[in-house]
């Protein structure tokens, strides 16, 4: 990891504050953080530098929203996510920076497009007086959970970009704000902590990255506080639009860099 300049450190500090904000307010917003880290640091190294900060944010989110988690959803997701993490680890063995940025950016844009399409289809069905169905048959619901789980595990391992994927899944499943935040808080605390040995084994976390994290963690705390203060002022529709908008922005930043 190269030495960062003062301006690069300040940019990373803003991104770290956004990590805290995203964990307690708008989950998909941390795609902007991963894009900033990937812009300042080499893409592979950026994933290792960002992971400990995400875990700090996860701890703060769990302390804030731990009572609102929906554990049946979490248990359904974990097997598919574990498979995705293994696939992501294998991918990182040979992928270079350009491959990481392109693949993750494309996945984020695809998932955002699918979610917008699903929400519009559901709204049109409601306007016609039809019953809204989340996932259709049990088989379709299982396929949806496994698909999002594998994608979430893969993207979180490759570029810490599982937040948007799982945000889109929880929104499409019908979670409201507090349930969304509580479930995602526990999900990412468990998943990100389990990624530590994989990331260390790949050489993505080392002494220099941990020293950088020790300085940047001071920015995560005020970001998390600001997110908690703002979340009650964000209505559900705006909340969903912010998540999707942040996902699209992060995906475009990765693709166009």
Task: Pick out its properties.
mainly alpha, 257 residues, 83% helix, globular
Q: What's this entry about, in short?
A:
The chain has 257 residues and is mainly alpha-helical.
Order of helices and strands: HHHHHHHHHH
According to DSSP, the number of beta strands is 0
Structural category: mainly alpha
SS field, number of helical segments: 10
Average predicted confidence as pLDDT: 86
- In terms of per-residue confidence, which ranges show pLDDT below 50 for 5 or more consecutive residues? 131-135
Strand residue content: under 5%
Please compute the radius of gyration using only Cα atoms.
17 Å
Distance between the termini: 19 Å
What this model shows, in words?
The protein is an all-alpha fold. It is built from 10 helices and no strands. The protein has helices spanning 6-24, 30-40, 43-65, 71-94, 97-127, 138-159, 162-173, 177-201, 207-231, 236-256.
Secondary-structure blueprint:
Layout: H1 6-24, H2 30-40, H3 43-65, H4 71-94, H5 97-127, H6 138-159, H7 162-173, H8 177-201, H9 207-231, H10 236-256
Helix pairs in contact: 1-2, 1-3, 1-9, 2-3, 2-10, 3-8, 3-9, 4-6, 4-8, 5-6, 5-7, 5-10, 6-7, 7-10
């Amino acid at each position: 990891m190269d030495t960062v300049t003062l301006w690069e450190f300040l940019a990373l500090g803003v991104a770290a504050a956004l990590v805290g904000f995203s964990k307690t307010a708008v989950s998909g917003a941390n795609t902007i953080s991963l894009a900033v880290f990937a812009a300042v640091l080499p893409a592979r190294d950026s994933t290792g530098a960002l992971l400990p900060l995400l875990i700090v944010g996860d701890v703060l989110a769990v302390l804030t929203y731990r009572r609102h988690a929906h554990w049946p959803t979490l248990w359904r997701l974990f097997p598919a996510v574990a498979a995705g993490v293994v696939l992501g680890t294998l991918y990182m063995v040979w992928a270079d920076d350009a491959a990481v940025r392109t693949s993750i950016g494309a996945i984020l844009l695809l998932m955002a497009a699918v979610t917008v399409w699903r929400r519009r289809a559901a709204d049109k069905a409601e306007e016609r007086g039809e019953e809204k169905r989340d996932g259709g048959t049990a088989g379709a619901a299982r396929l949806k959970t496994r698909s999002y789980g594998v994608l979430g595990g893969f993207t979180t391992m490759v570029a810490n970009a599982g937040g948007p994927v799982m945000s889109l899944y929880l929104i499409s499943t019908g979670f409201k704000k507090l349930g969304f935040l509580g479930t995602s808080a526990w999900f990412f605390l468990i998943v990100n902590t389990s990624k530590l040995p994989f990331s260390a084994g790949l050489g993505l976390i080392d002494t220099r990255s941990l020293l950088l994290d020790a300085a940047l963690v001071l920015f995560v705390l005020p970001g998390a506080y600001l997110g908690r203060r703002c979340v009650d002022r964000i209505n559900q529709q705006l909340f969903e639009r912010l998540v999707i908008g942040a996902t699209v922005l992060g995906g475009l930043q990765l693709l166009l860099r």
